[in-house]
Design a protein that fits this description.
172 residues; mainly beta; four-stranded antiparallel β-sheet; 17 strands; 0% helix
């Protein structure tokens, strides 16, 4: 047996193994077989895939109750694993009505042409804000109406006569 190939490869083994291949090992390999003074040759073409071909993402961070969309690309098959025993073989996955149990690390193994790549997506789920509004229910005409809001980090008030405010505690 006589093997020749890219990057100066030569071997006289019947079944040689090339360890830790990279793109330099891709190309044509020629095997010549000798028997009883005769010879025959065959050429094979070897492709070496890029180990970093896949990618994954999500639409996070999210609030509790929203839909989590996980997406992966670059492969011909996928294996997702995540919090709460989550698993899927789809490239694009939607998890409906998420809560804090859906927060965490999602890992997808992406397979393409016999190679695999792994991508990680960390998903944050914020607790759903709980709006709490109050004021003096009865006031006299000409007095100030004090509105009080709690439960969030930004506010938007709307009311009669086109009233709008972004203040937490507006006064009319």
């Amino acid at each position: 047996y006589s093997w020749t190939g890219p990057y100066g490869f030569e071997s006289e083994e019947q079944n040689p193994v090339i360890e830790n291949v990279d793109e330099d090992n891709a190309g044509q390999y020629i095997l010549t077989v000798y028997e009883n003074g005769c010879e025959d040759s065959e050429t094979i073409n070897i492709e070496i895939g890029d180990p970093n071909f896949g990618d994954a993402d999500s639409n996070g961070p999210l609030c509790a109750g929203q839909e989590l969309a996980l997406s992966a690309e670059g492969g011909d098959s996928y294996e997702w694993q995540g919090p709460n025993g989550f698993s899927s073989n789809l490239a694009n996955v939607t998890i409906y009505n998420v809560d804090e149990d859906n927060a965490g690390t999602y890992t997808v193994t992406i397979y393409n042409n016999g190679c695999s790549d792994m991508a990680i997506v960390v998903v944050e789920i914020d607790e759903e804000p709980h709006a709490n509004a109050s004021s003096d229910n009865e006031i006299c005409e000409g007095q100030d109406l004090e509105l009080e809001g709690n439960g969030g980090d930004s506010y938007h008030w709307e009311g009669p006569n086109g009233f709008e405010s972004e203040e937490q505690n507006p006064v009319i």
